Amino acid sequence: MISSSPSILSPSRSDALLRATLRGCAAVAGLILVFIFLFLLSAAWPVLREAGPWRFVTDAAWHPAEGLYQLLPMVAGTLYCAAGALLLAVPLGVLSAVFLRFYAPRPLAVVYRRLVELLAGIPSVVYGFWGLVVLVPLIAAWQAPGTSLLAGVWVLALMILPTVALTADAALGAVPRDTLRAAAALGLGRWSTVWRIALPAARAGVLAGVVLAAGRALGETMAVLMVTGNVVAVPDSVFAPLRTLAANIALEMAYAMDLHRAALFVSGLVLAGLVAGLMLLAARLSGESAHASA
Amino acid sequence: MPARNYLSRDTAAAALVWSAAVVVAALFVWLTGDIVWRGAAYLTWDFLTAAPQDAGRAGGIGPILVSTLLLLAVCLAVALPLGLGTALLLAEFTVEDTAFARAVRRSLDILAGIPSIVFGLFGYVFFVQVLGLGFSILAGGLTLACMVLPLLIRACEAGLRAVPHEYRQACAALGLSRGAALRRVLLPAAVPGLLAGAVLGVGRALAETAALIYTSGYVDRLPSSLLDSGRALSIHIFDLSMNVPGGDRLAYGAALVLMLLLLIINATSAWLSRRWSQGRIVSV
After folding, report:
1. Closest in B6, B118, B237 to A36, CB measured
2. Mean pLDDT for chain A?
3. Is B47 exposed, middle or buried (0-12, 13-18, 19+ CB in 10 A)?
4. Taking CB atoms and an 8 Å cutoff, what residues of chain B touch A35?
5. Which residue of A has its CA nearest to B168?
6. Do B101 and A36 touch (CB under 8 A)?
7. So where are chain A's domains?
8. N or C: more exposed end of chain A, with fewer CB within 10 A?
9. pLDDT, mean of residues A241-254
10. Cβ of B258 and A123 within 8 Å?
11. Which chain B residues are Cβ-neighbours of A3 within 8 angstroms?
């Protein structure tokens, strides 16, 4: 921060120009989000005007060519996949972070952290590809057809695990040293320190990571599309195929026309709204953790 | 008795933590091992330079690498100035937390979480249709630019904030204008941090698939201009494994290339930011 007041210390005209340019940049960057919502809404408007928003939850099925726009099976598919992935990734991720901070010998911790960072850098299409050629046949050998909720959950869990682990690791690292020393002085064991002291102290940061991971899980398109079979139905078992909102957009945009296309933009809006809410929650949570550690 | 209870619970907890770590490591080795093992055979000069034949079942990924690089170039050319400008305003020119700065920050926080397929929809409506760019590398690159912008701004802001405050006071004491202080002192000092951010943005853009399907398209020929459609490497992997029966073998090769590229990029970014934080310790 250049803290001097411009009127006294920098009377230069070029500074005023620079400032205006930078404000312009920031305005454009800030407006992108507004643009996204405006353009999605305008593209979705025809179907919202024609059919109204309620048809998306009351219609008999998703047959957009015949004017039926039931989105709930895909909302359910999205939520099932994301919830299942969180159920696997949160315990594994948090335990990984605990391992890094409290259990691993130093050299091993360095290697393990690098490994999790590598995992975070693998692109989603590679996760999807691996799921398709390795996991799906494996599941199919057990219970056909293989492309299923289970495969989606598995792939997604692997994808979001690094997010959970790395944010939890950072949050645990921010727990004040003195707190941990005090726990040791009280004679608490390692696990009691972790469970009763460190994790509660790092709660806000860990939660923010979980919310971020949830946002990623809800919005992931390609990896899920490749392994879940894309049948529009509420899955009745972990071996049943399903279709998520994001996959639905990617699959049908190629040939959708008119109202059908507009309906896809409605599902895009639903998805963006869901995730935007989650992001605001994560920002609030990490803001709280910043206050707590300050 | 209670002491023994604690002891056995501690042992059980340690076993739990270690086994979680082993599971994660094993899954990682399984995934990367599989890709490396089956993709290594394709890591040849021919594969990297030849054009794909028979819908990708044979040949290489030459034109696809070119398209990918062009997409990244467009993305960076737009996102870098815009991101740096915004970061400069947020880090250097906003004396207090003004309403404008708060609104921009909040908007970028949300933008960072918007799913890539939604960026794809937006890019399709705005760049492809409204601006009339068609399915093109330009439209795809611009969509990617919107997507990496929050990441880039956050990294640039961190880089600028890490420059010691004394530098700014010294500049002010010397009577430098803010523009001169930025150009001569602050930006050069923040360069490693800015580079690390840019490299991170490239990595994110390189890994992207969903935002590109309906903006830059599928065409696997060598693009002759930025207004041609071009196929990114990640889309090539997707297409080979989903739409081309028998495309799996070469998809392994493409997946390995993509993973190696990202590995190099992420390592570069990590190295840059480490170097920069070391440099900081010396200069303070």
Report:
1. B118
2. 86
3. buried
4. 122, 126
5. A2
6. no
7. 62-293
8. C
9. 90
10. yes
11. 95, 168
Q: Which helix (H) or strand (E) holds A90?
A: helix A72-98
Shortest Cα distance from A108 to chain B (angstroms)? Answer: 11
Tell me: the pLDDT tens digits for B141-158? 999 999 999 989 988 888
Q: Look at chain A and count its residues.
A: 294
Tell me which CATH homologous superfamily contains domain A62-293: MetI-like (1.10.3720.10)
Instruction: Check residue B27 and give its pLDDT.
Output: 92
8 Å CB contact of B14 and A190? yes
Distance CA A16, CA A40 (A): 36
Least confident of A86-90, B225-229, B269-273: B269-273
Q: Which residue of A has its CA nearest to B3?
A: A189
H or E element that contains B52:
strand B52-53
Summarised one tens digit per residue, pLDDT across range B219-253 is 888 888 888 888 899 999 999 988 888 888 889 99
Considering only CB atoms, which chain B residues are within 8 Å of A102? 17
Question: In CATH terms, is domain B46-283 a member of 3.90.70.10?
Answer: no
**Is B2 a residue whose pLDDT tops 70?**
no
Taking 80 as the threshold, does the pLDDT of residue A283 lie above it? no
Please answer yes or no on whether A129 and B203 come within 8 Å at the CB atom.
Answer: no
- ipTM comes to 0.87
User: Rounded CA gap, A119 and B31, in Å?
Assistant: 10
Identify each DSSP E strand in B104-259 by its residue range: none
Residue range B102-118: average pLDDT? 89
Buried b (16+ CB within 10 A) or exposed e, B116-152: bbbbbbbbbbbbbeeeebebbbbbbbbbbbbbbbbbb
Q: How far is A117 from chain B, CA to nearest CA, in Å? A: 9
